[in-house]
Design goal:
The complex is a heterotrimer of chains A (164), B (99) and C (782). Helix content of chain A is 74%, strand content 0%. Chain A is mostly helical and 164 residues long. Chain B has one domain: Helix Hairpins, CATH 1.10.287. The longest helix of chain B is centred in the C-terminal third of the chain and has 31 residues. The mean pLDDT of chain B is 90. Among the domains of chain C are: 246 residues, no CATH class; 93 residues, no CATH class. The N terminus of chain C is likely disordered. The chains are: A mainly alpha (164), B mainly alpha (99), C mainly alpha (782). The interface between A and B is large, with 88 and 69 residues.
């Protein structure tokens, strides 16, 4: 238990810091890299939450594909290498209070609702089998819809990025 | 482990993502902030899945990952197109829809 | 119906007949004819006059039939039995407790006057066929004449005072229309208005009298007889029942008599009658000599119980009616002396004779007065028609005796003969009809104790003979003057000629109907349509007196038998049979020791039953009195003849021009010529002082107060609307509208920045809103 807790807190802190660096850094590539850290941390959290399959999927898809996409996009749009001062807009000042208020609201809600509730202690990790049963069982239809979404996305991306 | 710690983590990430959406001018960075938001939602889902002892959350989280990937793909395609036409991807300058 | 058999009399059921039951047709036929003449008269071959004559002939036949059946009815009744009138009534209109009915009341008086009116109307209509030939308003003349006859006939047989009033007013209207027949001349229309308004002044009395009688009598008549307070029978019975309050009945009698004064031309409202001669001569002979003007006398005779009790006719030595009658006799006879217009002489003579009738009624001589209505109608109508004949054929439409007449006896023999017969009748010479009526009046006046008034009557007889002789001399004797001499004297047409037929005068030049009457032709006798009525009337003037020839004994007194209502007490349980059913009353007599006992009616309240007529006295005839009055008449005639010869023909210097030489006589003469300055008084003093200030005040009121209110209201409204416009409309309303537009625009302008087109801004807004909403939700759900 204690190991999990410590692990959680370390990963959580890392994630938060990295997230903050994502939204505040002046360097686009750095932001991407910090995002990688966040995503990795998220994967770690998933493992702590006994969701191994999801964690692995996260790493594979998000970090492997999405981040690469981001980097490609950055490259193709001739993002300035190195520090770029022109990355924040005028709403920066609005953003902080909004985020804070939102955080406060959510915190209030969370504390009220869950209070000191503890996670149930159980050793059974959710197996891939279980997940696939879910996917191809009750959630089959969303699965198929999702396949269409992906198909549409692929075609859309190709169409959009064509040079004609 | 408290339930709340996971949920708080997710909340914090969410709010940082929100800040990023509001504050960032670069379209790609905006997309990255959106990714942050999506990930916080995933954490939430999985925390609740563990709390409730069900695997629904896992399924849903997987779907979100898939959708996010698709979305980023299309989104970056759009960004590319915008860059081709306007030679910039600063969203501040995409204001033809002003009223 | 309870038949009360008294001790000695057997009461016979009274005979009735078709004419008696349907006498209501008599005024209806002329009324229908009037409507027809107005609607289609102009298109008929004789321009509507045939309808008029026909309708009057039908009425004449009906009234003759009615008279005949009435005579049968009276003959079939036993002596002293009250011959109840044939009454039929229908309810016309009911409202608020008042029941207005129409109906007929046929008794001896109605029958006499009905016959007179129908007869004279028929003759006058026939006369008018010739007299008014070519007139500009021929059709309307006959329409008005027919309507007049219908109205008077309705009045005569009315069974209640409302119908009576209706007929009275119709007569007044027709009189106005007929007097003003040639209203293009100003004098004619003024005369018509004067007639109308003078009679109207009297009519106030009629309305007051009818209302007073209604309210006073209604309770009694409803309780005892089942009749309303308008019913003539009811009022008569009520008056003699001892029930009425003496001052009420006196005031009612005086009020009704005021109406009679107006209508019958008594002093002081006689001024309209001479001026009414402005109308065509047939009108004068019908309305203003024999029929309409006797309506006032008829009123008194009809409601005699009211006057008998109210003015205490047999009890006092003088009452309002005899005084007025007496004054009228003398002053109008005096005025007749100074007239040059032949119709005016006859008009004043009519006034004087009406005075006789009033004198008779006022002194309790009911039957002689009614008989005088009968005989006077014939000879006066004859005299007027004779004057018309003269103007039509001899004097070139002039009525001026001094200027245009004279010596006409040679050229107009028939007119002359009828004139003489009628004049003798008027003067009351035996055996002409006037003797039997007028002398009876004078006789009975004296017999009932009014001795001074008997003397007045005799003086009047003297004066009548005198002025008629003067008029006769000027017209028929002496040398022909002016138009009678064949001179068409156009320049001699003075203001006089407002009385003449100016239309037929101008028609001379344009109409061929006057071809027989070349304006420059010599005087000649008139045609048959004119002379035949004259002859008929003169025969009647001679013979009608024998209907009630008192000198020859009781059996000759037909009129008294048939006409005079008997003063017997009547018992009845009156049940009014439904609408239109006639009531057959059977009368009883209280106690009759001898068959000529005096009834209590009029002198005391009957213990049981009702009285409809008061007991009156009849003077026994004495030849000595008759001879004395005839001597007076002859004296008057002879003196006047001699004076006329001296003044007009011989121009004797001792006599002629007397009035211009002796100042006193001159003053008296001008006093008479100016009609006692009464007209002057009425017009200049009474009318000016009353009417002008009132009209000025009314005008002031209208202009300043009524119009002032209107103008003031308009000004206030204008100011108010101005204020509203400036303040409410311009400032408030417009500003509201303008400002709402400005507001919308500014809101739009203010909200415009949110539509910047920048995604980050949209995102910012979105998330801020979400944050705030989340916060609110969380807090609210605490």
């Amino acid at each position: 238990m204690i190991a999990q807790n410590i692990g959680f807190w370390i990963i959580a802190a890392t994630m938060v810091v990295a997230a903050l660096r994502v939204v505040t850094t002046n360097n686009v590539v750095h932001a991407a890299l910090w995002l990688v850290v966040v995503l990795a941390g998220a994967a770690g959290q998933y493992i702590l939450l006994a969701a191994e399959f999801v964690a692995v999927t996260q790493v594979l898809v998000y970090i492997g594909a999405v981040m690469v996409l981001f980097l490609f996009g950055t490259m193709l749009t001739r993002a300035r290498i190195g520090s770029d001062s022109d990355l924040n807009n005028s709403y920066k000042k609005l953003g902080i209070p909004v985020a804070t208020v939102m955080l406060a609201a959510m915190a209030l809600a969370l504390i009220r609702s869950f209070g000191d509730e503890k996670m149930p202690v159980s050793d059974n990790i959710v197996s891939t089998q279980q997940v696939s049963d879910q996917i191809f069982g009750p959630y089959l239809l969303p699965f198929w819809a999702l396949s269409f979404v992906l198909l549409a996305a692929v075609i859309g991306a190709i169409v959009l990025a064509r040079k004609d | 482990m408290f339930v709340n710690q996971f949920l708080f983590l997710a909340a914090v990430l969410f709010c940082i993502g929100v800040y990023g959406v509001i504050a960032r001018k670069n379209a790609v960075l905006m997309l990255m902030s959106i990714e942050l938001i999506l990930n916080s939602v995933n954490i939430n889902l999985l925390a609740f899945a563990m709390r409730n002892g069900s695997t629904d959350g896992h399924t849903f989280a997987l779907y979100i990952i898939a959708v996010a990937a698709a979305e980023v793909g299309v989104g970056l395609g759009l960004v590319l197109l915008v860059y081709r036409n306007k030679k910039t991807i600063s969203v501040d300058e995409l204001s033809e829809m002003r009223g | 119906m309870r038949i009360f058999a008294a001790e000695s009399e057997i009461l016979a059921p009274l005979a009735t007949g078709w004419f008696l039951e349907n006498a209501w047709l008599i005024p209806v036929v002329p009324a229908i004819a009037f409507a027809l003449i107005i609607l289609i008269g102009k298109r008929l071959p004789m321009k509507g006059s045939e309808l008029g004559v026909l309708s009057m002939a039908i009425s004449l036949v009906l009234s003759a039939g009615t008279a005949y059946q009435w005579v049968q009815r009276v003959n079939g009744a036993s002596e002293e039995q009250f011959v109840s009138p044939v009454v039929r009534s229908w309810s016309w209109w009911q409202s608020g407790g008042f029941d207005f009915g129409i109906g007929q009341h046929i008794d001896g008086l109605s029958v006499v006057v009905l016959f007179v009116v129908a007869f004279i109307s028929t003759l006058v209509q026939v006369y008018s066929l010739e007299y008014l030939r070519g007139d500009r308003r021929y059709t309307h003349f006959f329409a008005a004449l027919t309507l007049f006859s219908g109205g008077m006939l309705a009045m005569v047989l009315a069974d209640n005072m409302i119908l009576f009033l209706l007929g009275w007013e119709i007569m007044g209207l027709c009189s106005f229309m007929l007097i003003g027949h040639w209203w293009e001349e100003d004098a004619n229309s003024r005369a018509a208005l004067k007639a109308f308004f003078t009679v109207r002044t009297g009519d106030m009395g009629l309305l007051v009298g009818i209302s007073m009688l209604y309210f006073a009598a209604n309770d009694w008549t409803q309780a005892n007889l089942g009749l309303s307070g308008f019913s003539i029978r009811g009022i008569s019975a009520w008056a003699l029942s001892g029930e009425p309050n003496s001052s009420v009945i006196t005031i009612a009698a005086v009020a009704l008599f005021i109406a009679s004064i107006g209508k019958s031309g008594q002093f002081p409202l006689h001024t309209w009658l001479p001026d009414a001669m402005a109308g065509p001569t047939p009108v004068s002979s019908l309305l203003h000599s024999s029929t309409m003007v006797v309506a006032g006398v008829f009123l008194v005779a009809r409601l005699y119980p009211v006057f008998f009790v109210g003015l205490d006719i047999l009890g006092s030595g003088g009452n309002l009616i005899v005084i007025i009658g007496g004054i009228t006799i003398v002053i109008s006879a005096a005025l007749a002396f100074v007239q040059n217009d032949i119709k005016r002489v006859l008009a004043y003579s009519t006034v004087s004779q009406l005075g006789y009738m009033m004198l008779g009624l006022g002194a309790g001589a009911w039957l002689p007065a009614v008989f005088h209505i009968f005989t006077h109608a014939f000879f006066k109508a004859c005299l007027f028609l004779g004057a018309g004949s003269i103007s039509h054929s001899a004097s070139h439409h002039s009525f001026d005796m001094k200027k245009d007449m004279g010596g006409l006896r040679k050229v107009m023999p028939i007119t002359f003969a009828t004139w003489i017969v009628s004049t003798l009748a008027l003067c009351g010479v035996f055996p002409f009809s006037g003797f039997f009526s007028k002398d009876e009046i004078i006789d009975n006046v004296g017999y009932n104790g009014y001795n001074t008034f008997m003397v007045v009557g005799l003086i009047g007889a003297f004066m009548t003979a005198a002025y008629m002789t003067r008029a006769t001399y000027l017209t028929f004797f002496g040398e022909p003057r002016g138009a009678s001499a064949g001179h068409a004297a156009h320049d001699s047409h003075s203001a006089h000629d407002s009385n003449t037929a100016h239309d037929s005068h101008s028609a001379h030049d344009s109409h061929d109907t006057h071809s027989a009457h070349d304006p420059h032709a010599t005087p000649h006798e008139s045609g048959l349509l004119i002379t035949v009525p004259l002859m008929i009337l003169s025969v009647l003037a001679l013979s009608s007196g024998f209907l009630n020839a008192t000198p020859f004994g009781e059996s000759w007194e037909r009129m008294k038998l048939w006409v005079e209502p008997r003063a017997s007490v009547v018992f009845e349980e009156s049940k009014s049979g439904g609408p239109g059913e006639s009531l057959n009353l059977v009368a009883g007599v209280v106690s009759a020791e001898d068959s000529h006992s005096k009834s209590v009616c009029g002198s005391a309240t009957p213990e049981e039953g009702v009285c409809y007529a008061p007991q009156l006295n009849h003077a026994p005839f004495k030849w000595s009195k008759a001879i004395m009055s005839m001597l007076i008449v002859f004296a008057g005639g002879a003196i006047s003849w001699i004076l006329s010869m001296l003044v007009f023909t011989k121009r004797d210097p001792r006599v002629a021009g007397l009035t211009s030489r002796i100042r006193l006589l001159g003053l008296g003469h001008s006093f008479l010529v100016n009609k006692y300055y009464l007209d002057h008084f009425y017009e200049k003093v009474v009318v000016r002082s009353v009417a002008y200030p009132i009209s000025r005040a009314a005008y002031w009121f209208n202009q300043n107060i009524l119009d002032g209110v209107l103008h003031g209201a308009a000004r206030v409204t204008t100011k108010l609307s101005d204020w509203v416009y400036k303040n409410v409309d311009q400032r408030v309303v417009d500003n509201t509208v303008n400002n709402s537009a400005v507001l919308t625009k500014s809101v739009g302008t203010a909200a415009q920045p949110t539509q910047s087109g920048r995604v980050s801004q949209y995102g910012a807004l979105l998330f801020s809103a979400t944050a705030i909403a989340a916060l609110v939700l969380v807090i609210v759900n605490t």
